[in-house]
Design brief:
By secondary structure, the protein is mostly helical. The protein has a single domain, classed as Cytochrome c-like domain (Cytochrome Bc1 Complex, Chain D, domain 2). The chain is built from five helices and no strands. Helix 1 crosses helix 5. The protein is globular and about 30 Å long. The protein binds heme C.
């Protein structure tokens, strides 16, 4: 699950791989994310991530976050969204 999520995150998610904004390490330092306000989420911040429920992560990946650079990935099958959520959770320290 986590390995599949990692591939999606780094490379295969369409239209744009998550890492372009969220960074290869998931720390929010991707090249496309640099200019965004608010900045992309830092998924390695365990203190913040533990307060965000799975349902919210799921909803935002599917629908995007209005007024921010976080686009909608409505085309991703639910299974892949869950793979991404497991991967993102694995980054939190
Ligand atoms: C074009 C840049 C961009 C891309 C590509 C992108 N994101 Fe984001 N993402 C953002 C930004 C900016 C935010 C911060 C939005 C906010 O502060 O509300 C964000 C927020 C999020 C959040 C919200 C966490 C919370 O606060 O509830 C999740 C989850 C997320 N992104 C997952 C993903 C995943 C998974 C992908 C790939 C399928 C992805 N993002 C691709 C820019 C991007």
């Amino acid at each position: 699950m986590i390995r599949e999520g990692k591939t999606l995150f780094l490379k295969t998610a369409q239209p744009v791989a998550c890492a372009m904004c969220h960074g290869e390490q998931g720390d929010g330092k991707g090249i496309m994310g640099a200019a965004l306000v608010p900045p992309p989420r830092n998924f390695t911040c365990g203190v913040m991530m533990k307060d965000i429920p799975d349902g919210q992560l799921f909803w935002i990946i599917k629908n995007g976050s209005p007024e921010t650079g976080m686009m909608s990935f409505a085309g991703l099958p639910e299974e892949q969204v869950w793979q991404l959520i497991h991967y993102i959770r694995s980054l939190a320290k």
